[in-house]
Amino acid sequence: MATYELTVNGQQRSVTADPGTPLLWILRDELKMTGTKYGCGIAACGACTVHLGGVATRSCVVPVAMIGDRPIVTIEAISQDPVGRAVQDAWVSHDVVQCGYCQSGQIMSAVALLKSNRKPTDKTIEESMGGNICRCGTYVRIREAIKMAAQL
Amino acid sequence: MGLAVFALLLSLGAVGSFAQQIPARNARRAEGLAAWQQVHSVLIHPRCINCHTAVDYPQQGDTRRRHFANVVRGPNDNGVPGLQCATCHQESNANSTGVPGSRNWHLAPLSMAWQDRNDQPLSSAAICRAVTDRSKNHNMDGPALLKHNAADTLVGWAWEPGRNIHGSPRTLPPLSRAEFAEATRHWVEAGMPCPER
């Protein structure tokens, strides 16, 4: 066990954990931030996506010991970001969510896309969102919501 | 005229030394080509060539299948916003999940493709030409290529590739890292000859 000082959503948080503990479980079990979801545990579905040092990252495969001083942003704070707010508003406008389980990760990836590209095409959306799986099949609404958020 | 030049060279003893140099040069080239064959055997192993594609995606596994989730190369060879290489690949292997990792995980640039657009490896000669073309290889000369093969961290991942998603160790290139570096050194010292075809 070791103690780590993390910056989560702009706040300093201290956690004591095994160095190999994935960030996902630091967030959910240690910090009680359950907005980030466990889907597959092998970086294959995208449900656990957070921003780590500004990069959309699968938190289920990032050991806490590797985080260093990179800031972490989770779905709990994404509305504080103008792009994040626009994405969430567009999500509501398009009634994107069905069961909702994957949507934290979908939104985090969409925000990462729009922070780099404010005029995404269908192709760039599909390329950027290709690692986020939705078993309800809300992909068409996700794509339209991203386009709407790009206008906001 | 030619005879006069030959006589002059003969008087200077140059013909003898030329005659001696040709077999020596041929032997050096043969040694270099043998060393290249060893280097090449590593370059076409899936741990290496999977990220030296000629298309807009990496490959994975020993079958060299297209990377799952339609992962794409992106403008900087490290994916696209929202789905960069670093989205999943961290600085070390995640053996509990089978996700490989190393510092600066990325695809080789298209200029260093060792495959054709049908995902088939190029010929040994074509790969050799690509590796030695300084307009394509980040301007690396022989010593720089040797350093790259012997010491680059991401290249070294090929010998410490961790476990796959099934928990089995990933296969390794046919030479050890040290043997690969030694073969590269022999090839560089022999003037980096490439096969004719």
The biggest chain-chain interface is: A-B, 29 and 23 residues
Q: Estimate the mean pLDDT confidence of chain B.
A: 92
* SS elements, strand count of chain A: 5
Give the count of helical stretches of chain B.
8
CATH architecture of the largest domain in chain A: Orthogonal Bundle
Oligomeric status of the shown chains? heterodimer
The main β sheet of chain B shows up as: 2 strands, antiparallel
Radius of gyration of chain B: 21 Å
Distance between the termini of chain A: 45 Å
Strand order of the largest sheet of chain A: 4-3-5
Low-confidence stretches of chain B: none
Q: How many strands, which pairing sense, and closed or not: the largest β-sheet of chain A? A: 3 strands, antiparallel
CATH fold name of the largest domain in chain A, please? DNA polymerase, domain 1
Count the beta strands of chain B. 4
CATH superfamily of the largest domain in chain A: [2Fe-2S]-binding domain
**What form of chain A results from the Cα inertia axes?**
globular
Summarize the structure.
The complex is a heterodimer of chains A (152) and B (197). Chain A has 152 residues and is of the alpha+beta class.
Secondary structure elements and pairings:
The complex is a heterodimer of chains A (152) and B (197).
Chain A (H helix, E strand, L loop, with lengths): L1 E7 L2 E7 L5 H8 L18 E4 L2 E4 L13 E2 L8 H12 L9 H14 L5 H8 L9 H13 L1
Antiparallel strand pairs in A: 1-2, 3-4, 3-5
Helix pairs in contact in A: 2-3, 2-5
Chain B lengths: L1 H11 L1 H30 L2 H4 L9 E2 L4 E2 L12 E2 L2 E2 H4 L35 H9 L9 H10 L1 H4 L20 H13 L8
Antiparallel strand pairs in B: 1-2, 3-4
Helix pairs in contact in B: 2-8, 6-8
Provide structural commentary.
Chain A is built from five helices and five strands; from the N terminus they run ββαβββαααα. Chain A is of the alpha+beta class and 152 residues long. Chain A folds into two domains: 2-74, Beta-grasp domain (Ubiquitin-like (UB roll)), CATH 3.10.20.30; 77-151, [2Fe-2S]-binding domain (DNA polymerase, domain 1, Orthogonal Bundle), CATH 1.10.150. In chain A, strand 1 and strand 2 (11-17) form a beta hairpin. In chain A, helix 2 packs across helix 5. The mean pLDDT of chain A is 97. Chain B has one domain (31-189). Chain B is built from eight helices and four strands. In chain B, the strands form two sheets. Chain B has a two-stranded antiparallel sheet with strand order 1-2. A two-stranded antiparallel sheet of chain B has the order 3-4. Chain B is elongated. The model of chain B has no long low-confidence stretch (mean pLDDT 92). Classes of the chains: A alpha+beta (152), B mainly alpha (197). The A-B interface holds A 20, 41-44, 49, 55-58, 60-63, 66, 109-110, 112-113, 115-117, 124, 126-131 and B 68-72, 74, 80-84, 86-88, 90-92, 94, 96-99, 165.
